[in-house]
Prior knowledge:
Layout: H1 13-20, H2 27-35, H3 44-55, H4 58-61, H5 66-70, H6 78-101, H7 108-119, E1 126-132, E2 138-146, H8 156-165, E3 170-176, H9 186-200, E4 205-213, E5 216-219
Parallel strand pairs: 3-4
Antiparallel strand pairs: 1-2, 1-3, 4-5
Helix pairs in contact: 2-3, 6-7, 8-9
Amino acid sequence: xxxxxxxxxxxxxxxxxxxxxxxxxxxxELLALLLRTGTRGRSVLQxxxxxxxxxxxxxxxxxxxxxxxxxxxxxxxxxxxxxxxxVMELARRAVAERLKExxxxxxxxxxxxxxxxxxxxxxxEVFAGLFLDAQNRLIAMEELFRGTLTQTSVYPREVVLQxxxxxxxxxxxxxxxxSGTVQPSRADEALTQTLKAALALVDVRVLDHVIVxxxxxxxxxxxxxx
Length: 226
C-alpha cells in the first residue's frame, strides 16, 4: 500500500506544506495528507485526485455523505471516512462562525459560500432560513422544507413561527436548484413576496432570497427582486 513517505521528496505533501505553507498545496495534495495511504497499485495522491474527480472538486466533497464515501475503493474503513466527515463539518462550522461574529451583509460572499456548503449539492430542493439578530448577525440556520418548492409546499406560518422562536429581527431566505441553474422562477418570486408580507406582520424583515446550485449563487436582492 503506497505511503506518503514512499513518494519522491518533491511529491510529498507533508514536506511541501512544512516548507512552503498549506496554501502552496493543491487540493489533491491537501486531501492526500488526510488520507495518508493509497491502495494497492494506486498512490495516495492518485487516490485523492480520483476522490475529487468523483465528487466534482472540493465543493462536491464537502457535501458527500458517509455512504457515498464508503462506496469509494480505499474509503471502506470507518477511520478515513470519519476523519473526512469531521473535516467537512469543521469547514461548515468555520463559515458559520464568521457569520455569527459580524454583520451578515458585511460579507455577502461569505453568506453565499455558507449556503452553497449546506445546500448546493443536495439532490432535492431544500428551503432554508438564516435567522438574524438586530445587528444582522446569524442566530441560526434552519432547513424548513424539502421537495418541490411552491407557494403551497412552503408554509408562511412555519417560517413566521421559526422567526419568532429565534427572536429574529431579519431573515435571509434560501433554497437550492438541483437542476444547476440559479435563475429565479416566477414561482420563486411569488413565494418571496408571500413570505415577505407574512414576516412583515411580525416586524421581521426579509433581507434577501438566495438561490444556490453547484458553483453558483444568486441574490434576489442584488437583482432588485425584493
